[in-house]
Amino acid sequence: MLAPSLALAQGPADAAASGLALRWRDPDALAATTEAEFDARLSERLGHPAFNPAALQDSLAVSWQGSPDQCRVELQLLRGVEVEGTRVLESPSGDCRSLLPALLTVAALLIEARPNEPAAQPEPLLPPKPAAPSSPSTPQPPPERQPWLFFSLGAAVGAGLAPKLELGPSASLVVAPARHFRVGAWGALFFPHQYGAGPGLSLGHDSVALLACGMPLSGSFSLGVCGNAAFHRWSSSGISLPHPESRQTSTYTVGLAVRAEWRLVRQLWWVGSVGADVAPRPLYFYFTPAPGGENVLFRQRRIAPALFLGLTWGLP
C-alpha cells in the first residue's frame, strides 16, 4: 500500500496539492487503517497528494470514536479554528473495518468540494504618493449668539393720556431667559406742556412698566407680542388762575404691543414696539372757578396708542 504513495511523492513537482494538513486521532486504537495508509489511498483516489504537511491554516480532522462493537468516525474540515463541514460515519454492524470505504469516499468529497483559493500575492511596493496640497479653507464665522440682555435708550411717543401728542426720552432693560421669551422693565419721562390759555394747565407725565414677551420669530430679526402693566404719575398746575394749585395724581394701564428686534452690527441692535394701553379708570383735569363748580379742561381716552424706538446694546 505504500508504493502508490512513494510514486506520488516522486511525481512531477507541479502536481496539485490540496493545501490541507491531516489531523489523525485514534486514542483507543480503533482505526481499521493507519494514518499513512489512509493518506496514500486517499491520494491515489484523488490523483494528487491529499495532504500537505506544511499547511498551517486548513486541515482535515479524522477522529475514531466509540468502541470495537459500536465504531464511528467523525470528519471535520477546518479553516483555522472554524469548522467548515462535519460528517459522522457509523458502522451498523459495529465493525470499524467496514467504515473504511465510506471514510475514503466522504473524505474525497470533502476535499474536492473545498473552494480553491489562490495564494495571496504580495502587493508590489510602490513609492508613496505625494500628498495633495491642501487648499486653504475659508474659515467659517462662528454662529451668532442670541443676546440674553437688551439695554435700550430711545424715545417714546404717546397719545390719548394727555390733550396732545406726548414725546419724551425712554429706556428699557429686558432679559431673555429663553430664546423665544423676554421679560423686563420700561420707563419714560414725557416733557411737560401747557394746555389751554386763560385759564389752562401745565401737565407733566412719567411712567414705568413691566413687560413680558413671546418671540416666535427669533434670530438676527426677532418679532413677537408683549403684554405690559404700567404705572403713570401726573403733575398738574393751573395757569392764569387767581390761586393756582399744583397736584399730583396717578393711574395705571394695561396693554399689548408688537415688539421687533433687528441686529445692526455685532452687539448693536434696534428695538421698537408699537401698541396700545387701556386705562381702566381714565382721569380728567378741571379747575374750579370763583363762583364754584368745575370747568373740565381735558378727559383721558380709554385706549391710548404708544410707540417706542431705541438703540440697543445686546449682551451675548
Structure description:
The chain is mainly beta and 316 residues long. The protein starts with a helix and ends with a strand. The longest helix is centred in the middle third of the chain and has 14 residues, at 100-113. 11% of the residues lie in helices and 51% in strands. The model is unreliable at 1-16 (pLDDT under 50). An 8-stranded antiparallel barrel has the order 5-6-7-8-9-10-11-14.
Notable features of this structure?
316 residues; mainly beta; Rossmann fold; Porin; 2 domains; 8-stranded antiparallel beta barrel; 4-stranded mixed β-sheet; 3 helices; rod-shaped; disordered N terminus
Q: Would you summarize the structure shown here?
A:
The chain is mainly β and 316 residues long.
SSE layout:
Layout: H1 2-9, E1 21-25, H2 35-46, E2 58-67, E3 70-79, E4 82-90, H3 100-113, E5 149-158, E6 166-178, E7 181-195, E8 200-217, E9 221-239, E10 246-265, E11 268-278, E12 284-287, E13 295-299, E14 303-315
Parallel strand pairs: 1-2
Antiparallel strand pairs: 2-3, 3-4, 5-6, 5-14, 6-7, 7-8, 8-9, 9-10, 10-11, 11-14, 12-13
